[in-house]
Request: fold
Amino acid sequence: MGLKRGVHFSVSDAGYLYILKEGLAYAAWLSEYGSGERQELAAEFVELILRRAEEACGGAEQCAVYEKAKEIVEEGKAWGSLKPKGFVKEVEVDGRRYKVKVIDGEAVEEGEGDRKLLRMRITAEVGRVEGEHIVDRVVREYTITYSRRGADNAAVGRTYASAEAPGGREADAERFSALVKALTGEEPRVYRMKDSKIKIVCYERHLKGFRRFEELADTIEKWLEETGRR
Reply:
């Protein structure tokens, strides 16, 4: 199926093979979007894992093991299932509702080795919802750059709100938060710095949401694989 050691599975000193979360999600994706023998093998593998998880529950109706396995499978099948262009969603940020309409999006890798970056650029129109109307619409390209940081090699994406954007940094940070929440289901963390800058931070959990979009999924998967520790 193309599973890679250290990324999709690990092997213990005693020789036991352990399927990692990324491995099960990748197999689920292959079972949905692969082709030929790889797709068939992936589908059989996913079915086997779910059956084993169900057996581990011992007949219990509520079982965390099975539910977690099912959640990972559904996440994998969602990779690349959406297109950013034309994606529209309303979300609430700090008590205000926003309508997000994505115009285009891309993800690229930059740099080499341990310093390799993942840069996502998303052009979107974000406007505030007031009753039946959308006001203060702003169209611009939003960019967030991921790198590996810290002792745990965490995937962290950062950007800064623009002082030149309509409404200044505060308004831009809120629109950016609305965009991230619309695409991933979770708001980013927003930090107000002493120098008046506003830093916006996303984490690996946000990448799960970004990976649902076809134009972003392959590059995100490649970057995670290439920069993850072996």
